[in-house]
Amino acid sequence: MKKYILSIAALFIAAFALTTEVNAQNNAKFNKGDLAFNLDYGMGSFNSFDGHKFDDNIFQHSIGLSGEYGIIDGMINGKASIGVGAQIGLGFGRDKYEYKDNGIEMVDKTIATRIRIATRGVFHYQFTPAFDTYGGLTFCFVDIDNFTWKYSVNGVETKADDTDVNFIEPRLFVGARYMVSSAFGFNLETTWDRFAYVALGVTFKF
Length: 206
Fold this sequence. Notes:
9 strands
């Protein structure tokens, strides 16, 4: 899974690099009073913990929406600014394990879903005119994971559910936006956060 994530990230960065020179005149600076929304597809994982045998890191697909408002600009020779905002997201993953030995057939299926609500503080620094590069801290104050297990032995099925709720989990992240115009662009973020280790999508700026 890690190789797949890194390959996607490398392709996205390469696409940024190929178009930077053409659009270098486009200023992507994030200013005080700016409002930006990211709509992203992310790749992460679930950490499952039932008593059956399956992968403890279930691959997660996620859709996230984050919004940010600029509150301070003009820092560090006019190249830096600060924004605050929030994030909501939905994640989905599934896993299946099958075992056959000495007449025993075992099937273990897991379906996992996640709801994410978080706040974000973001520091922007513009290295080049076409890119809005940034980093920050996410405080995830609602993170709800739900697991449904269907476990069968020789066709006899048992079903179980469990919900894991986490609160106040800080996570660092870094990212960049490439603005095609003053109102629309593409973005890439990476973080060591199980919701989305890598997320890419589109930006709408107002």
